[in-house]
Design goal:
- The chain is α/β, with parallel strands linked by helices and about 325 residues long.
- It has two domains: about 130 residues, 2-Layer Sandwich (Nucleotidyltransferase, domain 5), CATH 3.30.420.40; about 170 residues, Nucleotidyltransferase, domain 5, CATH 3.30.420.
- Helix content is about 45%, strand content about 20%.
- It contains eleven helices and ten strands.
- The strands form two sheets. It has a five-stranded mixed β-sheet, sandwiched between helices.
- β6 and β7 form a beta hairpin.
- α6 crosses α8.
- The chain is globular.
- The two termini are about 30 Å apart.
- The relative contact order is 0.19.
- Bound molecules: 5'-O-[(R)-(carboxyoxy)(hydroxy)phosphoryl]adenosine (KG4) and zinc ion.
- The site of 5'-O-[(R)-(carboxyoxy)(hydroxy)phosphoryl]adenosine has 19 residues, from α5 and α6.
Length: about 325
């Protein structure tokens, strides 16, 4: 049988990414151009700057991916592109690039939800076995997603305010750490001890929803109060305390959902999945459970296009096709 090659294109935030995967799970090209340096001095992603960078980088990243894979257009079976959610101007660059290639070379177009992409990063590591749960923790999303089969997503819990990554980035800012703050808090937390008492938002009994804004405010107030009293905070202890609070809630709710939904597999997904404390805590919690825990390598946790191609392959095989009227959808539901 002929090999299936799907290209993925991802531009939802501050990474211009193009990848090509073979037969659903083998990466043959994976190129990511990060814009982090340009956004750092603003302490966050500036949408207009992001769009401009995507325009500049798109063709370069695309050509690099084609070279890496050593393929030509006739080899590509489909182009999968992130339709949303994300920054509308940023998404539009990827969507239009994908449409242009699809139109010019008569290659089928497939629209992918960014979070579906994060979840399918796991398929590049291991075959999925259903039913499964995915804990999605990124800069914009914190969700527990139930999947009974490929391409079927049921959100059983989500954040009511800040996403986990957003809370990491805001706390990092309070500690004067550079953007994006997640990796810095992660590193500091390894050096400190969770000595500071911070809240954990469990919400109503049985709820799989999350809330991180109270925790974030609590960290900010703690720093403020100590500074006012002329005392200094040990940033590593504050980072460790904050991280412990986030991890406690994420792990406890994921374990509870795993038991209630009797799933075979649990997949970790999203940028915060790169967090060493979270990875370790999940591994420990799942050690004695009869469930297969899958944690992708760091490079597949943060935004990339291989994950979009992986989700795109499944949708392509299910017959999903997007037309030339495909538009960016910044508020797209999973
Ligand atoms: O999935 P992602 O690359 O982009 C979105 O779709 O949002 O996630 C980015 C988020 C940022 O908030 C960043 O601070 C966080 O992931 N992050 C981390 C770590 N690495 C990245 N958070 C905690 N610990 C990390 N090691
Ligand atoms: Zn993402």
């Amino acid at each position: 049988e002929k090999d299936l090659y799907i290209m993925g294109i991802e531009t939802s935030c501050d990474e211009t990414a193009v990848a090509i995967i073979k037969n659903g799970n083998e990466i043959v090209a994976n190129v990511v151009a990060s814009q982090i340096e340009s956004h750092k001095r603003f302490g966050g992603v500036v949408p207009e700057i992001a769009s401009r960078h995507h325009v500049e980088q798109m063709t370069i990243v695309f050509e690099e991916a084609m070279n890496q894979a050593n393929l030509t257009f006739v080899d590509l079976d489909a182009i999968a592109v992130t339709e949303g959610p994300g920054l509308v101007g940023a998404l539009l660059i990827g969507v239009n690039a994908a449409k242009a290639i699809s139109f010019a070379h008569q290659i089928p177009l497939v629209a992918v939800h960014h979070i579906a992409g994060h979840i399918y990063a796991n398929r590049l590591v291991k075959e999925m076995s259903f039913p499964l749960l995915s804990l999605v923790v990124s800069g914009g999303h914190t969700e527990i997603v139930f999947m009974k089969e490929h391409g079927h997503f049921q959100v059983i819990g989500e954040t009511r305010d800040d996403a986990a990554g957003e809370a990491y980035d805001k706390v990092a800012r309070t500690l004067n750490l550079p953007y994006p703050g997640g990796p810095h808090i992660d590193r500091l937390a390894q050096e400190g001890k969770p000595t500071i008492d911070l809240p954990r938002a469990w919400l109503e009994e049985g709820s799989y929803d999350f809330s991180f804004s109270g925790l974030k405010s609590s960290v900010i107030n703690t720093v403020h109060n100590l500074t006012q009293r002329g005392e200094t905070v040990a940033p590593e202890n504050l980072a460790a305390s904050f991280q412990q609070s986030v991890i406690d809630v994420l792990v406890t709710k994921t374990v509870r959902a795993t038991k209630e939904f009797q799933v075979k597999q649990v997949l970790l997904a999203g940028g915060v999945a790169a967090n060493r404390g979270l990875r370790k805590a999940l591994e420990e919690a799942f050690y004695e459970l009869p469930v297969d825990l899958v944690i992708p390598p760091l490079s597949l946790c943060t935004d990339n296009a291989a994950m979009i191609a992986a989700a795109g392959t499944v949708l392509f095989e299910k017959g999903q096709r997007a037309g030339m009227d495909l538009n960016a959808n910044p508020g797209l539901d999973l």
